[in-house]
Amino acid sequence: MTTSRKEVEIKLPVADAEALRRRLARLGARPAPPGRLHEMNTLFDTPEGGFAKQGQLLRVRVEEPASRTGRRGRAGKAGAASRRVVLTYKGPSVAETAGEAAQGGRYKVREEREVSVADAEDLQGILESLGLRGWFRYEKYRTSYRLPASQHWAAGLHVDLDETPLGAFIELEGTPQAIDQAAGLLGYAPGDYITKSYRALYLDRCRKHGHPTGDMLFSSKNK
Q: Less Cβ around it within 10 Å: N or C end of the chain?
């Protein structure tokens, strides 16, 4: 089944993941099933990079359950049974409102379409047969949190704690009002909002430190 929606989100830098988890707990947020996940993401594009030039993204994501500690501690047979493959399309970023456009865009807003797929290898084969290529991989660990139903303002808000080779970030996705309120309760201000993708942040890091660019992996020399 394919889902289509408008995605409104921001990232926030996390200096201390454990402190952030404690703050979430004080707000009543709890990890959502299935818990901590390992994600391997591969971006696909034409050989000429046509999607990227248009601000579009085509991504294959493979999710597997991961242990609470240990970067690569995944759950054996249970992990294989719970493996999830998702094909995602994201359109170019747009402004949420005319006022936001005048401010330079506080949030990242774009169309998103997703479909679950049975097999990552078969999907990759189809994309490659169409002339596309996997040109960038990045991995992370994600734990999703949900605020209690009594927090009516947070209905539909997604709160995701991401552990990446660049460090930890929290992603907030929902209405602008819910994003602002959640960010404030977590100790952040609008000046902390990040709308860049993980790839863009990774390229910034590589340029800053003079590292060659490549895939953004925990095993990478560029992390």
A: N
Distance CA 76, CA 36 (A): 14
End-to-end C-alpha distance for the chain, whole angstroms: 36
Residue 160 CB neighbour total at 10 angstroms: 18
Residue 205 has pLDDT above 90, yes or no: yes
* Distances from the Cα of 100 to the Cα of 6, 95, 172, 184, angstroms: 16, 6, 17, 19
Count other Cβ atoms within 10 Å, centred on residue 141: 19
Give the span between the Cα atoms of 111 and 45, in whole angstroms.
18
Give the closest residue to 93 by CA, choosing from 218, 3, 212, 200. 200
Q: What is the pLDDT of residues 100-126, one digit of tens each?
A: 544 447 999 999 999 999 999 999 999
Provide the residue type at 54 as one letter.
Answer: Q
Counting every residue written for the chain, the total comes to: 223
